[in-house]
Amino acid sequence: MTEVKHTPGPWVVDPDSPTDISPADDLRLGIASISHADEAGGRWEFGEQSKANAKLIAAAPNLLAALQLALDALAHCAADKGYQTLQNKAAHAANRAIAKATQ
Predict the structure, then answer these.
(1) CB 71 within 8 A of CB 29
(2) pTM higher than 0.85, yes or no?
(3) Across the 103 residues of the chain, what is the mean pLDDT of every consecutive 10-residue run?
(4) If we measure between CA atoms, which residue out of 35, 31, 37 comes closest to residue 59?
């Protein structure tokens, strides 16, 4: 398994600032802040999409761990007739996603 280089999870969305992501054990240690400019470009706006993006980023450590576990489980599954191609596609997609997150 690859050495973990990112801030260990779990991560959470700060309840006082719904577009800020922090480690669950210390909200003062910000990991990221999500925002986007409105059409006028003059002010910053934190809309529903920004809040949803923050939730997705906060889930990243959990998603990575789940994907690694699923890949390990997939490797131990017998290739059932008719599902081998799907299993191979799933394994390749999982490996690509894990590499993107860890390299």
Answers:
(1) no
(2) no
(3) 78 88 90 70 68 88 90 78 78 87 81
(4) 31
